[in-house]
Amino acid sequence: MQVDQELLKLLTKIDEIDYDQEPLELQRQGARAVNEFMAEFKTHGLVRDKELIALLLVRLKDLQVRDYALGSVSAESLDLYFTAWRWLLRSAPEGYIAPVANLFAAVAYERGDGALAQRALDRAEGDDSSYAMSKLLRQVFNSGWAPNSFAQMRSELHPKICSELFSGTI
């Protein structure tokens, strides 16, 4: 797949979160980027704003932002998130694939496509073999965990993350 040079250039201009500093504002920025990305994707079926794509890819490296993205899926938006994460995964350059591939794997599994979810985890592990969520999801998928259990997990996880990031609101 051809790498988007403009996107690569934009990625170099965005600093990753420095945890020696207060990360909360940049994590909030990441959560908002998830929302903006999904709104744009829902409207147009793609996202043309490469600055938004770059910001999202960098912020998804943060576990809070990634978990916010994971928890923001609902039964009604599952197909949207599946299509959006698949689209973003095709655009993500090396070094930014693992978080997106894990998000895609989770929604693919929830939709009942375990084989596609496993292939997404293969892609994540090819990008970052030490990415902990890949190992966790692989164990969950291989254990035969019911795909609809993700909805229960989200209902417990997402309010906690929103509370940490936004004092319960966004």
Automatic annotation (TrEMBL):
InterPro entries on file: DUF4192 (IPR025447)
Lineage: Bacteria, Bacillati, Actinomycetota, Actinomycetes, Actinomycetes incertae sedis
Organism: Actinobacteria bacterium BACL2 MAG-121220-bin52
Pfam families for this protein: DUF4192
The protein's name in its UniProt record: DUF4192 domain-containing protein
Top-rank taxon, per record: Bacteria
